[in-house]
Amino acid sequence: MGITALSSKNVVVIVAHPDDETLWAGGTILSNPDWKCFVISLCRGKDPDRSVRFHNALKVLNCEGIMGDMDDGPKQLPLDETEVEKTIMDLLPTKHFDLIITHNPAGEYTRHLRHEETGNSVIRLWNTGKISAHELWTFAYEDGNKTKYPVAVENASIIRPVTNDIWLKKYSLITQTYGFREGGFEAETTPKTESFWQFFDPEVAERWRISIEKLKT
Who contacts 128 (Cβ-Cβ below 8 Å, separation ≥6)? Predict the structure, then answer.
């Protein structure tokens, strides 16, 4: 599914939080050591614990990266889309990539506003030409409206089973490097199959994004 040349890519992974890059795409990153991969986390840049853990995780993933500090308080008040887009643009090391990987505008589970805002903003930026890329992938997971831990969407464009060795590295990043407890949500979620919706045309991605937003209203 989703046949694509995966070697020698200039890749940017744009996520809401430190650990999202590992949880939803860590196996794919680890399986492609030839990627030149840059990870942007939009939140927790001033968190002295999570920021250190993020940069330690990037060493294992063989990625470079940077963190922003968007509001991520417990109330999760909606952010203005222009603020999210400006934060992304300010953190990007360059404006062209072979591949962008980011959140699904519907999120990966029910529900996390920052995940949804990130996915929406990245697709808008791609569609308006502010970010250039040959293709864009969004995470493709669902939790059956909170009835199960998030799993790969069965009909996603790209479905990538993770080898046991790679999954153990990914699980170690979640439980040891990031420090999430075994048996907790993050540890139990850590997917053994990673999946993505793949787009080559930003206008198609934008129409898809709008259709998802309409379903939320």
Answer: none
CA neighbor of 110 nearest in space, from 82, 83, 142: 142
pLDDT of residue 126: 98
Encode 135-173: b = buried (16+ Cβ within 10 Å), e = exposed: bbbbbbbbbeeeeebbbbbeebbbbbebeeebbebbbeb
Which pLDDT value is given to residue 208?
A: 98
Sign of CA dihedral 74, 80, 81, 85: negative
State the pLDDT at residue 216: 86
pLDDT value at 3 more than 70 = no
Residue 22 backbone dihedrals phi, psi, to 5 degrees:
-80, -45
User: Are 118 and 15 within 8 A, CB to CB?
Assistant: yes
Please report the sign of the dihedral spanned by the C-alpha atoms of residue 157, residue 135, residue 150, residue 190.
Answer: positive
Q: Does 2 have pLDDT greater than 50?
A: no
- CA-to-CA dists, residue 73 to 44, 64, 77, 79, 139, angstroms: 10, 26, 8, 11, 23
pLDDT-above-90 percentage for the chain: 94
Q: Comparing C-alpha atoms, which of 73, 104, 66 is closest to residue 87?
A: 66
What is the full DSSP assignment across 160-192? EEPPHHHHHHHHHIIIIIS-PPTTSHHHHH--S
Identity of the residue numbered 99: L
Q: Quote the pLDDT of residue 29.
A: 97
Domains of the chain: 10-216 (3.40.50.10320)
